[in-house]
Automatic annotation (TrEMBL):
The lineage of its organism: Eukaryota, Metazoa, Ecdysozoa, Arthropoda, Crustacea. Belongs to the short-chain dehydrogenases/reductases (SDR) family. Keywords: NADP, Oxidoreductase. Coiled coil: none annotated. It comes from the Eukaryota. This is L-xylulose reductase. The gene is DCXR. Homotetramer. It holds the Pfam family adh_short_C2. InterPro entries: L-xylulose/Carbonyl_redctase, NAD(P)-bd_dom_sf, Sc_DH/Rdtase_CS, SDR_fam.
Length: 243
């Protein structure tokens, strides 16, 4: 369980859901973990659950504040860009506010935090790994998910660009692309049982993913076991994209 001993890991969106479970798993596996969230109450309960985890409360939509907060904890060897925002609705009803919120949290902040972490690794000449949270929505159009699908497609291209430009400097970047996971964010789009049944019917394994299954994929891509995996998106989708 000491696979990440001596390593420092930052998880964004770590107050709940996949991010919280990832932070706990990395701490269990020996990493010095920094959990970032905009919600102080969630961070406090996480700290109570695992006192070794360091908590950082900052809103990733604030470019400067987020950048300065991360600079204070460098170096970071393993970065998990998990923070995201979901809002659904028909294409013709998509708003500027929805677009800005989803892209600011899920794409712009990812660029910002990744720049800070990886630039420092390059300067120090230290190897590192980044995992970005994507979605099956990056590769398959989902009704009422126009802005979300577009944002996750941007995440996958950013993943490739980081891998392309920083791979020669010893920094790997991959993405994990889950199917629906019934976290609080997942329930935004899939709480309706009729809609959920329709999606499940398109997944060969006949169910949604569990949080732990996504975390296991993240841990693999962060670890040395995936050292030759770079610039890829790993579906955790029960075969949805194969159907």
């Amino acid at each position: 369980m000491g696979k990440f001993s001596g390593r420092r890991a930052l998880v964004t969106g770590a107050g709940a859901g996949i991010g919280r479970a990832t932070a706990l798993k990395l701490a269990e596996m020996g990493a010095e973990v920094f959990a970032l969230s905009k919600t102080q109450a969630n961070l406090e309960t996480l700290k109570q659950e695992c006192p070794s985890i360091n908590i950082i409360c900052v809103n990733l939509e604030n470019w400067t504040d987020a950048r300065e907060a991360v600079k204070k904890i460098l170096p970071i060897h393993h970065l998990v860009n998990n923070a995201g925002y979901a809002e659904v609705g028909p294409f013709l009803e998509a708003t500027q506010e929805c677009f800005d919120k989803i892209f600011n949290v899920g794409v712009k902040a990812m660029l910002n935090i990744s720049q800070v972490v990886t630039a420092d690794l390059v300067t120090r000449q230290i190897r590192g790994s980044v995992v970005n949270l994507s979605s099956q929505a990056a590769q398959r159009a989902l009704k009422d998910h126009t802005v979300y699908c577009c944002a996750k497609s941007a995440v996958e291209m950013m993943t490739k660009m980081i891998a392309l430009e920083l791979g020669p400097k010893g920094i790997r970047c991959n993405a994990v692309a889950p199917t629906v996971v019934m976290t609080d964010m997942g329930r935004v789009g899939w709480a309706d049982p009729v809609k959920a049944r329709d999606m499940i019917s398109r997944i060969p394994q006949g169910r949604f993913a569990e949080v732990e299954e996504v975390v296991n994929a993240i841990v693999f891509l962060l670890s040395d076991e995936s050292d030759m995996v770079n610039g890829h998106s790993l579906p955790v989708d029960g075969g949805f994209l194969a159907a």
